[in-house]
Amino acid sequence: MGIRVEAGARTDETAGLSGRVEYSITQGALLTWRANESCKSEIAVGVPSTLAVAMSTSRFKKMRTCVILLLAGLSAPLVPPRASAQGTATSAPLTDIQYEVTFTRANAERRQVTSTMTFTVGGTDPVLLSIPKWTPGAYEIANFARDVSSFSAEQAGTSLAWDKIDPDTWRIRPRGVGEVTVKFDYLADSLDNANTWSRPDFLLFNGTNLFPYPEGRGFDFPASVTVNTEAGWKIVTGMTPAGAHRYSAPNYHDLVDMPFFVGQFDLDSAQISGTWVRFATYPSGSVTGGARVAVWEALKRVIPAEVKVFGEVPWSTYSVLQITDPSYGGGSGLEHQNSHVDVLNPGMLGTPVLPSLYAHEIFHAWNVKRLRPADLFPYRYDEEQPTPLLWISEGITDYYADLAEVRGGIVDANGFYLLTGDKISEVEALAPTALEDASLSTWIHPRDGTEYIYYSKGSLAGLLLDIMIRDASDNHSSLDDVLRTLYNTAYKNGRGFTSDEWWSTVSKAAKGRSFSDFYARYIDGREPLPYDKVLPLAGLRLARDTAHVPQLGIASLQDSTGLHVTQVISESAAAVAGVQPGDQLISVGGFNADDPNWTEKFRYRYARQPGGTELPVVIRRNGAEQTLTARLHFVISVGSHLIEDARASAKARKVRDGLLRGVTQP
Q1: Quick one: which of 377, 117, 94 has its CA closest to 221?
Q2: Alpha carbon 24 to its chain's center
Q3: Cα-flanking dihedrals φ and ψ of residue 535, to 5°?
Q4: Taking the CA of residue 230 as centre, how many other CA atoms within 13 Å lie in the half-sphere pointing to its CB?
Q5: 230 close to 212: Cβ distance less than 8 angstroms
Q6: What pLDDT is attached to residue 551?
Q7: 221: DSSP letter
Q8: Theoretical Cys-Cys bridge with 615: which of 22, 36, 132, 630, CB 3.0 to 4.6 Å?
């Protein structure tokens, strides 16, 4: 969620049951169909925006140095302790930890929320409290401490001395045994799944933003959260109720993995697969009537298909928390263990992209929130936590999002093939990239378009593995069995899985077939995936289409101020017109660049115009708007799609049918 993991926006078309579909999910986690505040799809106008990037959140904790000068007769160090690594700077032990979040109309006017933490200390040793640097599922450093203000600490009604030992750690000096209260305000103006955002009548918050933890003391402490808000305002969260507006969590990991909606929003629920699922939408009235019925229909189809993969429902309730806001450039989702948060532009409502987004984020409740790589187990919050296996957590999840749609009857087989073909085209348009490298590199956000390739390429690797397992086992085993086995052997034993475990489980499901060559060439290596060799084993083959499409020839990033040009392709229409890196793109050919669908509209209007047609390009440079004149330029776009092979063997047809229906032979 990812990171926002993310789903990529695309401009080419994909067919589903109801005709032409103009979106496909390739992200998360955070899935982003938009390329959000910090990243917009790097695209050439009119070219399928398969370079659309996903959104994430991560953090990198600075090294700390610890210098302690002990003098006889002094109970506190004369020179403050500084940490050199996690665990070397350790807080005094805390008990009875409780948090309060206050959000009323008064602080909503300031776009702020107040967080209060109370705890008991046993003496005068310094208390070290840290704010996380990232939210799991959003793989980037976000430095939430930067939004903290008005920090204070008191004991028995009197202020305590405090200072900071690093950018996100506060040191408080208690006067003795007793209860300490820490309070601060948090700026709630970031419309981001991993952060905190408010309106006059609404608040989204994540625990990673508002709940400090005692440095060096581990994360197994229980805690409670009380929400103070206006009478009549709703509260929804996955956390366990423990009284009026009070909730409890057995450990810090659970505490910060359950975001909250507070305020005025629509909320309803239904039973799916034997548990209650809640659908909360802000603003009130944003999803009503037939659109709301369609959401419930999608959830009732994808959830049972995903439950079947693992054989159990891992939550007692599940909450879909959805915000719609016109300032948001597209759509994204971020997963949690029993909920996920979607942020959408209103233009996404009612589109075929939504069931795929829901399916992706809900599948994460098993794959990554529970079953996850050992590198991510347990989570730590003070630095990057990279893993070369993120392609399994995100890419395989994206594969199963597509499978959930076809197995649940949201799309037919052709819809699944076209979604898959779109991912093939996306990967082939980018530089050759190893899946393990891409999994690691997402934390530094490469600017070459490959930042989130582990979604689409990982999904395709999952398809090929599924086919090879089914072929080798005569359809008695599948990738479903691999996930279910690791879920039971790793997650249920309180640990993450390793690369060796993954490949040994894949091999076992395939009746002992070795995947060392596949790993070396296509996962750790950068060779093109072997579609022509593997797809026929499922009665499928790859077809290619070519088309001439209009291209402006830029790469761009979007932030809260607009769409900014980061690169101009040599000899492109943009280059000839004089567009420069750093320009803010206002409009192209009469289409507003803030419109998330402008590339599709541009291509549709100009696809049949002759090359060389004048094309007005409005930019803002050095604060002043300018209109440049470009000349319409076309490039060849090659698209890929899967088709069924009419000459496929009976075994291959059985593999294909088993994959699409989610069945194996008894």
Answers
A1: 94
A2: 15
A3: -55, -40
A4: 14
A5: no
A6: 86
A7: -
A8: 630
pTM for the structure as a whole: 0.81
Strand duo 317-324 + 591-592: pairing = unpaired
The Cα 547–Cα 636 span in angstroms is: 6
Chain centroid, CA 415 distance in Å: 24
Reported for 481-489, long-range contacts at CB under 8 A and 24+ positions apart, including other chains, are 481/509, 481/664, 482/506, 482/509, 483/309, 483/310, 483/366, 483/367, 483/371, 483/396, 484/309, 484/310, 484/311, 485/509, 486/371, 487/310, 487/366, 487/370, 487/371
Mean pLDDT, consecutive 10-residue stretches, the chain (666 aa), reads 35 30 33 32 30 28 26 34 55 98 96 98 98 97 98 98 97 98 98 97 98 97 98 97 97 98 98 98 97 97 98 98 90 97 92 94 98 97 98 98 98 96 92 97 92 97 98 98 98 98 98 98 98 98 84 77 83 92 92 82 86 93 94 82 94 97 92
Omega cis (within 30) before 80:
no
630 in Cβ contact with 569 (< 8 Å): no
Q: How far is CA 202 from CA 111, 197, 210, 567, 600, in A?
A: 10, 8, 16, 38, 33
Structure tokens at 32: 């982003």
Check residue 125 and give left, alpha or beta (phi > 0: left; psi -120 to 50: alpha): beta
Tally of residues, the chain: 666
Q: Is 515 helix (H, G, I), strand (E, B) or coil?
A: coil
Q: Determine contact, residues 44/568, Cβ cutoff 8 Å.
A: no
Listing DSSP states for 25-46 in one string gives -------BSS--SS------TT
- The residue to which tokens 């990279």 are assigned: 386
Q: What are the C-alpha distances in Å from 280 to residues 289, 299, 483?
A: 14, 13, 30
Query: In 189-315, which ranges are continuous DSSP H helix?
Result: 207-210, 252-255, 289-310
Look at residue 165 in the predicted model and tell me its pLDDT.
97
- Residue 560: predicted pLDDT: 64
* Angle, vertex CA 402, rays to CA 421 and CA 370, nearest 5: 130
Chain centre to alpha carbon of residue 631: 38
Instruction: Write out the two tokens for 281.
Output: 């939408």
Neighbour order of strands in the sheet with 158-159: 158-159, 148-155, 178-187, 112-121, 95-103, 223-229, 246-249, 240-243
> What string of DSSP letters covers 594-605?
TSTTHHHHHHHH
230 close to 289: Cβ distance less than 8 angstroms: no
